[in-house]
Amino acid sequence: MPDLGGKVAIVTGAASGIGKTTAETLARHGAAVVVAGHSENGAEEVAAEIRAQGGTAIGVGVEVTDEEQVKAMIGAAVTAYGGLDCLHNNAAATKMHRDSDVVNVATEVWDETMAVNLRGPFFGCKYAIPEMLKRGGGAIVNTSSAAGLKAERIRVSYGVSKAALHGLTRHVANAYGKQNVRCNAIALGMILTEAAERNVEPKMLAYLEEHNALARLGKTADVAEVVAFLFSDAASFITGEVIAVDGGFTSHLPALVD
User: Fold this and answer.
1) Which of 217, 231, 154 is nearest to 186 (CA)?
2) How far is residue 24's CA from residue 182's CA, in Å, rounded to a whole number?
3) Is the pLDDT reported for residue 24 higher than 90?
4) Burial of 104 per CB tally in 10 Å (0-12, 13-18, 19+)
């Protein structure tokens, strides 16, 4: 099991879904966690659950597209725990039924998606890295998607934002690697969060499962344990990578999968 004892971690988008499970997992592995969510009440509820289980956590409300709020989130970690070692840029937006192709997508959908999925991680890296350098280094994990690795016929804003996130990941890894800051991205397939089960039609979930290399779709714990590993010293020689956590969804030729 990854040993994160003594590390301070921030997880954005942590009031539910992947972020919630990741925050809980990092705390279970010994990290002090800042649970950051769009809803301060929701974030604090998760933090309270972690504390009830013997972990260390505080909840912070943040709108990741707001530079001052991101700075305050970083400051909250430093104030509470004395520094920062790990940042999981997990908060993301997808306009499922409005993000169409490049000709038909509304400009505001493009702008809103880019603001959360790219501007948010940019601010996170911008203000987290100086605090990590004070502690001799740190690790950043950006939540991406298979849509950033392979093209879709829809969701142009989402796919392009995630592909750009890979560029940010590699930039951070190379700009700050000599100062012991690592940065990786995880490209997710379908993960069965509450939101996915609520918003994706059952027949689509069945289709995605059928065309996965493994015989199931992902669980939030599948993602959380990878993040914990990447934050741990066991992953100290891994940086600048986009790691698929997708059950093999992007590993085959789609024309031949059947």
Assistant:
1) 231
2) 22
3) yes
4) exposed
Residue type, 105: V
Map tokens 């996130």 to a residue.
165
194 in Cβ contact with 17 (< 8 Å): yes
Q: What letter does residue 60 receive in the DSSP assignment?
A: E
Tell whether the torsion through CA atoms of 238, 230, 29 and 81 is positive or negative: positive
Domains held by the chain: number: 1
What is the spatial distance between Cα 45 and Cα 179, in angstroms, rounded to a whole number?
A: 35
Active site residue 127: no
Q: What is the CATH number of the domain that holds 204?
A: 3.40.50.720
Cα dihedral 254→186→201→46 (10° resolution): 170
User: Per the structure block, which two tokens stand in for 219?
Assistant: 């669980």
Residues 188-220 have pLDDT tens digits of 999 999 988 888 899 999 989 998 999 999 999
139 bridge partner residues: 86, 182
Q: How distant is the alpha carbon of residue 12 from its chain centre?
A: 7
Rounded Cα gap, residues 43 and 22, in angstroms: 13
Catalytic position from the list 81, 127, 158, 176? 158
59-110 tens-digit pLDDT: 999 999 999 999 999 999 999 999 999 999 999 998 878 999 999 999 999 9
Does the predicted model carry a pTM greater than 0.85?
Answer: yes
Q: Is residue 252 part of a domain?
A: no
Domain that holds residue 127: 8-247
Alpha carbon distance 109, 211 (integer Å):
29
Q: How far apart are CA 141 and CA 184, in angstroms?
A: 5
